[in-house]
Design a protein that fits this description.
about 350 residues; alpha/beta; Rossmann fold; 2 domains
Length: about 350
């Protein structure tokens, strides 16, 4: 890495693994990924607490056994969740290494959301995960012309480089926002909350597109070559509002706002179809310089699950940058009851300020 020595500083948060033999592969990955970096190591909750305030660039590296459980990791996660300002001013990446085929993504999603709520930003594609067989690297290995382990090592190295190169803040730019929703303006609590936020956005430029009316077809699973060819022309097989309106707006914006009511603990169908159909444009363009925001309302509970879906699909997968505290999450059930939630206007204004500050 060709940069000033001060720019190579990384705080490595690597919860101690109770199964040393399981941690050997992660150690090899980290040795390769962190070459040339000035590394400060934190291995347990006590060291983490003693190191406060933690600031700068962080790399979370978690080794999981077959069970998907690392007890020291959960001690760290508890501290992060209990202090909403613990990681203010930080930028982080995540490497999860597992002895089995499961839990890498679920552990990463909960970690990224907790750290983000505590003030930590994440670059686009902040996760590198290694399953037990490394079969998740089959495609990458084929593209690179290497073996699975070599692809794993290269991906971890690229993550560290991206972490060091991504600016900690994007303040100073007037946001150009694309807000996507599929709500009814007269009854939707989530859309009503967005309109409260929007009222405090000042000079920000924004375009609001509804995916509610008309047919929004989901991805049909075209071949890679077909999808890439259509993406190069700004198209998708199914066309419609996503190709006509959303793709151009997505290319122009500096921030994407996903307005997501909680439907059965999931992102709604039309917004999910948009995410799926982003593949065509993603094949020809990355979104590392575009911020992701979420406005999420649950009738009962589960806003954190929807936020994690946005993180995994749009930040981890589609490369959107995740600003600190990217999501505003509220609870409201009856139509328009969001407007009577105590303190909601103040929180909407605070969220708008976060968007304006990047």
């Amino acid at each position: 890495m060709d940069r000033h020595e001060d720019d190579n500083r990384i705080i490595l948060i690597k919860p101690h693994c109770q199964e040393p033999s399981r941690a050997e592969r992660l150690e090899a990955v980290l040795a390769h990924a962190l070459q040339g970096c000035d590394v400060t190591l934190i291995e347990n909750a006590g060291q983490f607490e003693a190191a406060q305030p933690v600031c700068g660039r962080l790399l979370f590296a978690v080794s999981l056994g077959i069970s998907g459980v690392n007890l020291e990791y959960y001690s760290l996660l508890k501290k992060i969740r209990l202090d909403q300002h613990l990681l203010d001013g930080c930028m982080a990446g995540v490497i999860i290494d597992s002895a089995g085929e499961f839990y890498t993504k679920s552990v990463a999603r909960e970690l990224v959301l907790a750290a983000n709520m505590a003030g930590c930003a994440f670059p686009g594609r902040p996760l590198v995960e290694g399953t037990g067989t490394l079969h998740n690297f089959n495609v990458q290995a084929k593209i690179r012309g290497t073996g699975q382990m070599e692809a794993y090592l290269a991906s971890a190295r690229e993550l560290v480089e991206r972490l060091l190169e991504t600016p900690l803040h994007t303040a100073g730019k007037t946001p150009h926002l694309l807000a996507l929703h599929a709500g009814n303006a007269t009854t939707s609590n989530t859309l009503g909350l967005w309109h409260m936020v929007r009222a405090h956005l000042g000079d920000a430029v924004f375009q609001e597109i509804s995916l509610r009316d008309g047919e929004v077809w989901d991805c049909r699973g075209c071949s890679y070559d077909t999808c890439r060819h259509l993406g190069e022309e700004g198209k998708c097989f199914y066309g419609g509002v996503i190709t006509r309106d959303v793709y151009p707006a997505l290319q122009a914006c500096t921030g994407l706002v996903m307005i997501c009511p909680n439907y059965n603990d999931a992102v709604g169908a039309n917004l999910t179809a948009f995410i799926n159909r982003m593949t065509a444009i993603f094949n020809v363009r990355r979104f590392y310089d575009t911020d992701l925001y979420g406005v999420i309302v649950s009738g009962y509970s589960g806003s954190d699950i929807v936020a994690q879906q946005l993180i995994s699909s749009l930040c981890m997968n589609k490369s959107f940058r995740l600003p600190a505290r990217f999501a505003m999450m509220e609870t409201a059930n009856d139509p328009r009851s969001i407007f009577s939630v105590p303190g909601i206007e103040e929180r909407a204004e605070q969220f708008a300020k976060r968007i304006l500050c990047g």
